[in-house]
Design goal:
This protein has 269 residues and is of the alpha/beta class. The chain has seven helices and twelve strands. Helix 3 packs parallel to helix 5.
Length: 269
């Protein structure tokens, strides 16, 4: 299995992200997955947003980095759609203009909705995939069948967005003030809506004090806090998934079917 460096929600903390991805960490990893939400933070400005956009544009050109789309990026990508304009989530028209003066449609198209790593059956997305977001599958689902169904669903949802419409795959659920039962790939709430299924998922989006792992132990859904070091749950756990959004106080390296979580403060010592 390749070594994967995972960077959760940045929210303008580009210097910290660069420190994490600096040598020797990025050299040691086969590739980097950034979980989205590059923009928006308390008290930010159009000028700060433009600087983050410049950083993202340069980062998108790096061949060993996979950039995922977050909800705080989505409303700038489709900022001309009135229903995407969410001031309560930090969106302003001034920031939208500043960001899109830097990022072109070709730049935005480089952001992915998800990434699937077949070694270890891991699914990376900003907020997580709920089984209710996919159409019913016949017979033995299997990871490849579910992955292919997700690819098709994302393509349809993207076409809807491009046409100015909406799609549940990219909308908020009840837990985040939305109209649908659960959120989509960029909106699923970890605390109230996440359900382990099919994949070992790695997500951000829902802020937590310490990284968390969610898994099934028999029929019981359980959560476990993680700290620096291994957070692998017990041998009876199944479908373990991880939430790494701690305001960039942590990051992770995945290898040999294990996930190891580190404190970002340690790299600054």
């Amino acid at each position: 299995m390749p070594d994967i460096l995972v960077i959760p929600d940045i929210h303008h903390k580009t210097r910290m992200a660069d420190a994490i991805m600096g040598a020797p960490l990025e050299q040691r990893a086969d590739y980097v997955v950034l979980l989205g939400d590059y923009f928006d933070d308390f008290g930010d400005t159009p000028e700060i947003s433009a600087k983050t956009a410049e950083w993202l544009k340069q980062s998108l050109a790096r061949p060993n980095r996979i950039h995922l789309m977050g909800n705080h990026d989505l409303h700038y990508r489709y900022w001309r759609h009135e229903y995407m304009q969410n001031p309560w989530a930090g969106w302003t028209i001034e920031k939208a203009r500043a960001i899109n003066d830097v990022l072109t449609p070709d730049d935005w198209d480089k952001l992915k909705w998800f990434h699937h790593e077949p070694h270890g059956n891991r699914l990376f997305s900003h907020a997580g995939l709920h089984p209710g977001m996919l159409p019913p599958l016949n017979g033995d689902d299997g990871e490849l069948k579910v992955r292919d169904a997700l690819i098709t669903a994302c393509a349809r949802a993207t076409r809807a967005l491009e046409a100015g419409g909406r799609h549940p795959l990219f909308r908020a659920g009840h837990a985040r003030g939305g109209e649908q039962p659960v959120g989509g790939l960029v909106w699923l709430d970890w605390n109230d809506e996440f359900v382990p299924f099919e994949f070992h998922q790695v997500v951000g989006h829902t802020p937590v004090r310490e990284p968390q792992v969610c898994y099934y132990e028999g029929e019981q859904k359980r959560y476990q806090f993680g700290n620096a070091g291994s957070t692998t749950p017990g041998k009876n756990a199944t479908l373990a998934s991880y939430n790494l959004d701690t305001h960039l106080r942590h990051y992770a390296i995945i290898n040999d079917n294990n996930i190891r979580i580190y404190k970002t403060g340690d790299i600054l010592k």
